Records
---
Amino acid sequence: MNPFSPLPAVDLSRRRFVQGLALGGAVAGLGLLRPVNAWALTSPGQPTVLSGTDFALDIAETAVNFTGAVRPATTVNGSVPGPLLRWKQGTTVNLRVTNRLRVPTSIHWHGIILPFQMDGVPGFSFDGIAPGESFLYRFQVRQSGTYWYHSHSGFQEQNALYGPLVIEPAGPERYPTDRDYVVMLNDWTDEDPERIYAKLKKQSDYYNFAQPTVPDFFRDVRAKGLGQALAMRKMWNEMRMNPTDLGDVSGHTYTYLMNGTAPAGNWTGIFRPGEKIRLRFINGSSSTIFDVRIPGLKMTVIAADGQDVQPVPVDEFRISAAETYDVIVEPQDERAYTVFAQTIDRSGYARGTLAPRQGMQAEVPAMDQRLWLDMQDMMGAMSHADQGGGHAAMPGMEHGGMDHAHMDHGAMASMAGTPAPVVHHARTEYGPGVDMHVDMPRSNLDDPGIGLRDNGRRVLTYADLHTIGGPIDAREPDREIELHLTGNMERFMWSFDGIKYSDAKPIHFNTGERLRIVLVNDTMMNHPIHLHGMWSELENPHGQFQVRKHTINVQPAQRITYAVTADAPGRWAYHCHLLYHMEAGMFREVVVA
Amino acid sequence: MSTNHRITSLPLRRPLLLAALLLALPLAAAAQGAPAASGSTTPMDMGAVPPMDHGAGAMAGMAMGTMQGGRAPVDARSGDYSDGIAPSPAHGLPLHGSAPAGMLLIDQLEAFHGRDANGQSWEAEGWYGNDSDKLWLRSEGERSRGKLEGGNVEAFWNRNVATFWSTQLGVRHDFGAGPARNWAAFGVQGLAPYWFEVEATAYVGPAGRTAARLRADYELLFTQRLILQPEVEVNLYGKADPARGIGSGVSDAALGLRLRYEIRREFAPYIGVVWTRRFGATADFVRADHQAVFDRQWVAGLRIWF
């Protein structure tokens, strides 16, 4: 799809909506809202950078225009995203956050290790910041890398209260580069996020405009025969589950932003051929998972969630909500490259350009085909038995000359070698809030996920990520806490173990213990699970350390484990980072005591 | 609970499934028993072992049986990892799952043109509440020859008892031509396998009157916005009510096909055709009134929700 080719008039409004405005962003001079100074300081898409140890951040309503309609956004210092904060490892930072809204607010420093009172979660850390008041966050910066910050109050995060956070290491960078860009991905909507949530509660597939149709059925009959066309629909229909349920909220309402710039605005990072460029990708979306690639450039992944990893060269990576990945690219040619981030449901994309000069652009690739969820997304390891679901039970079984022999290997291993893990469902998982149970989840980490399997590109998986230096704590976990990710898509209910936050008791970690969290995804959606205050050290299927993260994406019908060292006394939030899942109840309080 | 479903399943089998569904409904209603005391097992079992599962392969049926519904195994673990630690004093500060919601769906607001009569009719429902308990209101009725022919309004306590099913306990009031009637009402509604939206309600009134109403609808997507909605409704009465022109037994049935275009999800004009037929003693009353027992009506209207 070339976004600049003329389209029929009937599509103009839609095109503008998806592509956004070339010069969208904060709008000054409307009178009713506070004046905006970000434009005066920087060109669009280039963030205001604040560095040092003392910061004053003002949260206020600012008028923005990404789609042609002027809408109120909740901003930090008047820009979307908020200013890029640059801290230095080992320093103590003071951040005075002032609330100029009419409602309480908060800022949570995502992935930062700090005292729980500084974590910014209303109800746990503090009471929130009341209108007209300020709160002084003060803590020592113990880590380095790429992170971000966002509101933890209501739906303010969806309404643009977010920004990037970069912490320079106390020593030299492990991978020195010539240039350094933050690439922050966000999903903007002109709608009031509370209305989005209300719509999902009334009709959970409201934003899904790629559902199976009668013509699809007859197309499949022609292509595959009647028996196969019926078979591939059978289980979905019997279970009342939707094979196209890849995301709750889509490009039907979202305009996807790259550094606060809509696709038509084409955020551009300048380089000179031969330079090493570090791109710090942050997915600050409320409800969007992106698949990122830069056609023509190999990306070397050097950090995940702020933590350095052994370099992995890839063509593409999936970045779930709240994750960060740092990659290095080394363009050699005097040409433009498109930074392309299509959504998991292929309903839209964020897009920018790396180029030697402003104003250049490269071809924007067509979005990949939107696929139905696979049997392994529904049934986990049980899909090996393939009950005539119509889809290949396991991808990568055929060697197509593609660059992922490791994946075939992994799939085989999980099928033949690794014993299927025993799943323990909770008693509370059998109520109205749960629409399915996976008894034989898959536990391999080398699956890039729906829509990326066998796409001919080298796609990052969690199995590729190895944190340099190993785990922070070499102790074997003393005990396991098993939690199941549960939901009822039809009624848009989301929970852990079938218990919504409002009905749930806290999860207790003993201070100082090393424990293992076992997560089993009993749903057909991805869930990026974020534990505040402590690292989540992901393990491979054999229980060995893999990678240290703050947000771990659990794929449908997948079982993953990670170790946690409970060295941070206090009350912490633990939740799915898809905002609407969190709001519906997929949230727990963790008490370290 | 949302009331719209957009999966197309097996167009070729639709008539068969509809027939099976209709046969299964009275069984489901009977199995329902007294809803207030039924707990969570009966409707859930109905969901897990679909009555129209005759076309399902053994393996898929088995997989589905274990993947959905059912009871917790005896060795199921506890979901409580609190070790007795109390939640934060500000536990209720973030809502996360406890916020109430509401919806008003005017499913049919239409003009009809039949052999005997022209007029207008409506069918609407609304709800307000949380994930487990809701106040649920329903109303339907029709107007022709310039006067209200008949209608009713129902109010229920709707309780979600299983993944796709809820029980309803409440009252119904009939108005329009003839004397008004009041009923106690109890029923079940939900989503059956293959995405059939199902509603079965039993009614008990003074003087030994009983009645039942079964309703099912389905959605076939021709595009993401052009949707055909077949709907069937059957009414039964345990005792004749001549004052309202009702005989005992199956009184009437209707099959409607409405093709709507969702300009927005919330706003869809439609056109359609509805076949209605009266049966038994009810048909006799209609004949005595010199009206047709069978009618085909063309309809045009709006489907709107908020």
Note: Helices of chain B lie at 14-32, 41-48, 58-67, 280-288.
---
Amino acid sequence: MLEIKNLHARIGDKEILRGVNLTVPDGEIHAIMGPNGAGKSTLSYVLSGREGYEVTEGEVIYNGQNLLDLEPEDRAAAGIFLAFQYPVELPGVGNANFLRTALNAIRRKRGEEELDAVAFLKLARAAVRSLHMKEDFLKRNVNVGFSGGEKKRNEMLQMALLQPGLAILDETDSGLDIDALKIVADGVNALRAPKFSALIITHYQRLLDHIVPDVVHVLANGRIVRSGPKELALELEERGYAGLEAA
Amino acid sequence: MSANMQALAEQKYKYGFTTDIEMEEFPRGLNEDIIRLISAKKDEPEWMLKWRLKAFAAWKQMEEPDWARISHPPINYQDLYYYAAPAKAQPKSLDEVDPELLKTYEKLGIPLNERAALAGVAVDAVFDSVSVATTFRETLSKSGVIFCPISEAVREHPDLVREYLGSVVPVRDNFFAALNSAVFSDGSFVYIPKGVRCPMELSTYFRINARNTGQFERTLIIADEAASVSYLEGCTAPMRDENQLHAAVVELVALDEAKIKYSTVQNWYPGNAEGKGGIYNFVTKRGACRGRNSKISWTQVETGSAITWKYPSCILQGDGSVGEFYSVAVTNNFQQADTGTKMIHLGKNTTSTIVSKGISAGHSNNTYRGLVRIAATASGARNHTQCDSLLIGDQCGAHTVPYIESRNTSAKVEHEATTSKIAEDQLFYCRTRGLSQEDAVGLIVNGFCKDVLKELPMEFAVEAQKLLSVSLEGSVG
């Protein structure tokens, strides 16, 4: 379970999050919507531990651990996965090598045995097939020369292999056509389980047609200003975010 | 930095131990008497002594080059020892090698016992000024390959040595080459006869142990017509506060259709985090593609030394000959590297490829310096140069100094260069996937160097990858 309590964070002198309160129980998928500049990406970066964001107040507890005390890699080992809005390119680094290094780093931290190349490839190939990707995906360099859709699929492949307890999708749907959108949705839906939860950060409602959230939150001006069932997303789509900031 | 932290940082150079062994050293300083002593010690014929004395006379007239982007306090050449060797008589076979030396090489990961050795790799082990052991000589001699210490070759194969020694790097080539020619003590000699593909990888492991001693190794490799060989060299030295000089000369000769692949993993002690100590590495390496369609390929991974001054080059004389230079040079803390290559195109349809990857971290300076010269005779010559620099942190420097001279209008010369930094978002991306900061740097750096590392023989590629990560430890964050 993820519990965010009165979270304040800033970049430099600018306060972006101004007291976020949010609880995501295990097994649930929550969506966070909101206008540009509301603090959606900041929230995802603070949760995953990016440098440059100063937390001035509040706490973030995940499965009893204070996430804010942990380095990004230890948060990954604790089960947090951030799917990037703009996945980063790593020239010369083979996708398979990257995935295996990451998976084994996490397994090591969790006290599990590392996978050898054969066991890993078997696992990776199965994941590639289930995401309807070509096998040469594993041979290419991480995100180098990938189309926007391929990059997002690669994020889903990583997520499938690393088996997080909490996935944070930071506007993963931006710039995707409908087919790619479905792949992202399938990736998340495939992981649905009593111990898996997800935080879907999105500007538009359309992703939520494919990943049906249990709860929708509206983030505006650095605070959660409304929460409601999945129908809230439709309402926002119709009326826009105007007026919510004041609420 | 606390004493503890410093000790920890320095532990990372795991080859920094010294071997306690009785040594024979000549008096400090350099003069004709010392050269006569070296020559006598090695039982050299008169012609060799004359050659050395001529080189010494030339060296005295020369000055240290000052065009490289490096700086160091003046070297007092009279304050060095020019010969240091284990005192016990030269062993005749591996069984007679001093156990203390065997242990040293064991510790360095180079077992000299043939049963324990890396399968398929023959090793010549050079300790300070002498070769202490050469493995698999009998196996090699069955196919006619000569692999022995050069001091032995001077005595046993004088015709080959006289014909080729100094034929690629003339005595007066430069200050350090002249010095080496006067005082060189040992190194490897390789001759691959016509049509023979050397059945094993050959390698030399250079170890500096004695204090205040310069190492002046000399290596000569000759591949006769249609012969081929892959040769590797590795280097380490103890951690000491004072700088030590290493001035080597390597000459390669490839006749018609011959191929020589020369790989280096250079890991001399780089000095400590404050820039104290470390090896001054002034090396002249050059290969001559004398024959038609011959090929010489240099691959180097340079992570050690306080100063690296080194330009492995190819003279592409034979028509259709090929020269290659693949280089990774890493500098951290206060290391300085000025390294690159020269590709001299003389023959028709000669081609050369240069791939250089420079990585700078800490307060270090890393310079690529290269020359591509196309002579008027080199119709149809082609060169492609790719020069990439990666910066880690904001206190270091990367410099690229390419010279291109073309006197033939049919030649094609291409030069590409990039400079990049390890971006914060790349590190963060890796870390959100569970990689530690150091592992992330290692992964990104190895990715950056991939085009070069894939040229190394496999066992060495793995070693080099590890070395890159270790050399850059503590460079981020």
Note: Chain B has one domain: 22-471.
